């Protein structure tokens, strides 16, 4: 099928809210190897954000239900078994997106704007993996996400802050957002303490809100994609 026809089909799938179909179509477009046009890039982002978003939401619900049940009960076992299934799907989707980014999108991008878009996307999908990971796997995926966000910041804007300060705020942002995904709603006292400590030292970046403002500079290029996502949002 011609590329233009595939894009039309992806738009139709979006109208029907068949995001799994939409993702498969845009995956095929991506694997043809050319740099995506702005519209195609947004379609890809919308498709996968909705596909992975459904699994993230399901994982959170199941994790919350598991907390309310005795760890030895039959109900707990049913819930956690199903959560494992959802988690497997979530990881497969994230790894598929990361593979597309690594093998096609980042290396074939021809503009600064598309580079930032894909690096931010890479940071997002490693962050989604971190939400369901544990132990060393959680730390390694957080590190991958941090590195991608940092590269996006450095590519996007010539900020006046030191690299160390930017790295610090990205690490806090990731800690807070990943912890916030946990079913008990924990944001992590450690992260809050770090923010307060850094602010007391007179950092040029005063608190997490300022850093989120910095990140918003990155997201400008893909606002169209985020606005098209069904309730998922750029920071979801």
Radius of gyration: 19 Å
Content of β-strand: under 5%
- State the CATH class of the largest domain: Mainly Alpha
Q: Which term fits the overall shape?
A: flat
User: What are the segments in which pLDDT stays under 50 over at least 5 consecutive residues?
Assistant: 185-208, 218-235
- Largest beta sheet, briefly? none
CATH-defined topology of the largest domain:
Delta-Endotoxin, domain 1
**What is the assigned CATH homologous superfamily of the largest domain?**
14-3-3 domain
Structural class: mainly alpha
Number of strands: 0
Helix content: over 70%
The CATH architecture of the largest domain can be named as Up-down Bundle
Would you mind describing this structure in some detail?
The structure is a single chain. With 236 residues, the protein is mostly helical. The chain has two domains: 1-108, Delta-Endotoxin, domain 1, CATH 1.20.190.20; 112-181. The protein is 76% helix and 0% strand. It is built from ten helices and no strands. It has helices spanning 3-15, 19-30, 38-67, 74-108, 112-132, 135-156, 163-180, 189-200, 208-219, 223-227. The longest helix is centred in the middle third of the chain and has 35 residues, at 74-108. The radius of gyration is 19 Å and the shape is flat. The two termini are 34 Å apart. It holds the Pfam family 14-3-3. Homodimer, and heterodimer with other family members. Residues 3-233 form the 14-3-3 domain.
